[in-house]
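Please decode residue identities from the backbone states below.
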């Protein structure tokens, strides 16, 4: 199959968050399965190109015309990369904004990306299916089913649209409709209008052939008011076309057998190396390493409301009455940074924090800690629990989104299960859950079983890529005209 990805960021070219990892790993996994995959991205500052393939596209944006180029980058792992090259729009310090906030012309910038992706299909490479990501690519299905609905070249191309985090919607004032050249008819309940504003994500949800999100549980959650970020009704209206497919972990980077950042490699067969990693972790955080039997809870996270550290703050004093140490790595909202700093000051031998984004240190924590704590308020998929499972670092998490789908509660009766989780978004529930984990930790054999169960799980991209292929095929079938004269537009 020929698959075209449209996204606003992807490694190895650009990254602000998890989207970039997915749009690197999934095309690679599909290519390994024998599919032909291309990715179209904006050309941001520093992105190197191999050649220009279209020197001047004509892109209408409201009353103006823009003339960006299309360029080709180097192929990586069999995946071809193409760029929308418009320096005025994309050769900037940040991807979506700078220190003063979001760029004022984001509506135009990403409308241009969607239009350019469709023109790219017409002129350069016609795929069997398009896979668009997040609000930045959400206008692709809107345009294909409206302004391009009578274009015989592209009107039957199916579109799969993935929501990685429903909280990010691409909201703009009503005047944006004119600025991007969309007709007023599309500014209504059945279009992009959303409480008086333009909502790009809503357009993607309504006009795509199939929708996916990054875990089955999150697919259910976003249909509820609690998790739907006010779009739950819109999602429910398309529930029959919504599928949850987990993101995979990249085990070539995240495996204790081969990790180059950790003190000693280890595997499920012999966990001696994990002890060395724990000692090294404590030393790195300048915590006394003589008491190696004391469990270490690790945290690697953005420090933002989503991640649930207000629950930890609520019960931290109670928790620290247990024989336990906490090491945390992260940065973000000042209140959480201060909370962890105060905790470290208050318990200098048992709590430490590094306020930073530090990949090697993240590896050291995932390898050296005994547990990884992820109390998220919501978590579309989550990666740290997948890494924890692989490294015998038992996840203790809130049962939400991908955390719930990938962690099985340990059942002492059957010996099955890979971690500990709690349902209620509540400090006491978190405390009770950590205590259950600490109790299990005291029984070496039980703990070893939980570790082995987790290390045996496979959350690589292989299974997920296969699930996407099944969906691409369904999307293709959904656009085949049913009988003469009943062509779906
Ligand atoms: P989210 O995408 O919401 O931040 P995920 O669990 O899906 O959460 O992915 C987070 C990724 O970012 C993980 O790979 C995690 O190791 C990494 N990460 C988060 N914070 C830091 C940090 N401060 N330093 C290094 N890596 C981090």
């Amino acid at each position: 199959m020929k698959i075209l990805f449209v996204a606003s960021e992807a490694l190895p070219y650009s990254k602000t968050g998890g989207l970039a990892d997915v749009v690197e790993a999934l095309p690679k996994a599909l290519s390994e399965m024998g599919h032909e995959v291309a990715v179209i991205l904006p050309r941001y500052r520093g992105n190197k190109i191999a050649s220009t393939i279209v020197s001047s596209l004509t892109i209408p944006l409201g009353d103006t015309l823009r003339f960006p180029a299309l360029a080709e980058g180097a192929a990586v792992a069999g995946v071809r990369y193409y760029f929308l090259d418009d320096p005025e729009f994309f050769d900037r310090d940040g991807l979506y904004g700078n220190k003063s906030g979001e760029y004022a012309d984001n509506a135009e910038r990403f409308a241009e990306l969607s239009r350019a992706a469709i023109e790219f299909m017409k002129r350069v490479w016609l795929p069997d299916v398009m896979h668009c990501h997040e609000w930045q690519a959400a206008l692709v299905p809107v345009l294909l089913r409206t302004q391009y609905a009578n274009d015989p070249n592209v009107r039957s191309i199916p579109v799969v649209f993935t929501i990685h985090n429903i909280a990010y919607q691409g909201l703009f004032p009503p005047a944006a409709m004119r600025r991007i050249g969309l007709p007023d008819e599309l500014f209504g309940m059945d279009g992009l209008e959303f409480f008086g504003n333009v909502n790009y994500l809503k357009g993607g949800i309504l006009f795509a052939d199939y929708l996916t999100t990054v875990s089955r549980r999150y697919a259910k959650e976003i249909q509820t008011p609690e998790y739907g970020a006010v779009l739950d009704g819109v999602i429910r209206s398309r529930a029959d076309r919504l599928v949850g497919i987990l993101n995979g972990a990249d085990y070539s980077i995240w495996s204790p057998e081969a990790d180059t950042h950790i003190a000693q490699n280890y595997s499920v067969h012999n966990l001696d190396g994990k002890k060395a990693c724990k000692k090294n972790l404590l030393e790195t955080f300048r915590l006394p390493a003589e008491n190696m039997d004391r469990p270490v809870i690790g945290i690697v996270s953005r420090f933002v409301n989503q991640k649930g550290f207000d629950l930890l703050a609520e019960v931290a004093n109670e928790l620290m009455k247990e024989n336990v140490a906490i090491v945390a790595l992260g940065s973000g909202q000042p209140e959480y940074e201060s909370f962890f700093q105060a905790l470290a000051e208050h318990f200098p031998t048992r709590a430490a924090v590094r306020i930073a984004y530090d990949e090697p240190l993240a590896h050291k924590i995932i390898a050296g800690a005994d547990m990884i704590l992820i109390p998220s308020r919501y978590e579309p998929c989550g990666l740290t629990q997948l890494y924890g499972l692989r490294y015998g670092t038992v996840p203790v998490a809130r049962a939400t989104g991908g955390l719930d789908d990938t962690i099985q509660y340990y059942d002492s009766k059957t010996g099955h299960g890979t971690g500990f989780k709690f349902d209620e978004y509540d400090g006491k529930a978190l405390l009770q859950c950590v205590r259950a984990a600490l109790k299990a930790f005291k029984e070496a054999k039980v703990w070893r079983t939980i570790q082995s169960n987790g290390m045996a799980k496979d959350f690589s991209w292989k299974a997920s890529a296969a699930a996407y292929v099944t969906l691409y095929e369904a999307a293709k079938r959904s656009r085949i005209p049913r009988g003469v004269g009943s062509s779906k537009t």
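Observation: The two ends are 22 Å apart (CA to CA).
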